Amino acid sequence: MEYNSTREILVMPEYGRNIQKMIEYVMTIEDREKRSKLAQTVVDIMAQMHPKVKESGDYKQKLWDHLIIVSEYKLDVDSPYPFPERDALKTKPQKLTYKGIRIKYKHYGRNIQKIIDEAVKFEEGPDKDALVKLIANHLKKSYLNWNRESVNDDLIFKQLGLLSEDRLKAPEGFRLNDTSDILARNKKKKFIPKRENSGKKPYRKKMQ
């Protein structure tokens, strides 16, 4: 009995051992034209094994690339695409760079900080006051999603000041939305669409 531990390591396990053996066989064909036709047949089989790959626009080139990779770049055929570079697989992807923006309160997120920074630029007046009210109520709503035990308007106003570096202040006498109202809105059931009318009259129990 032959065990997998004694067999050759699969170059691309997702295609299985049979595909690898097919490619190894194609490499033994001396006639280049025949070898290229058999290579196309193997690519078609690879596509059937992974139908989702067709969702990609360049899936054909990817399959040919995989064919060459499985052959360890030894397969000499007339490919419709340039052969993949061997060193490309060894190249590590570049590290993603993230903006070094520090979030003072993570439960509010980064976007609200951007909104606050824009609100600061507004001229004093009714529009700015309305925007500050919206921001403050949003802060309270976000805070309640994170912690429902201790929240009050003074705390939200204080954190608004910290986030805006004391450049935004709630209008005098302004009160935030009530905590119970915010929580009640969050608990509202999702809308369930009504069933389409089948044309039948609704069943009604006859009165005795």
Q: Spell out the helices and strands N to C.
A: HHHHHHH
Structural class: mainly alpha
Over the alpha carbons, how many angstroms does the gyration radius reach?
32 Å
Strand percentage lies at: under 5%
What's the total number of strands?
Answer: 0
The poorly predicted ranges are none
**Helix segment tally:** 7
Overall shape: rod-shaped
Explain what the structure shows:
The chain is an all-alpha fold. The protein has two domains: 9-85, no CATH class; 111-184, no CATH class. Helices cover 44% and strands 0% of the residues. It is built from seven helices and no strands. The chain has helices at residues 16-26, 32-49, 59-70, 111-120, 126-146, 153-163, 179-186. Helix 1 runs antiparallel to helix 2 (32-49), helix 4 runs antiparallel to helix 5 (126-146) and helix 5 packs across helix 6. The radius of gyration is 32 Å and the shape is rod-shaped. The mean pLDDT is 82.
Structure at a glance:
This protein has 208 residues and is mainly α. The chain has helices at residues 16-26, 32-49, 59-70, 111-120, 126-146, 153-163, 179-186. Helix content is 44%, strand content 0%.
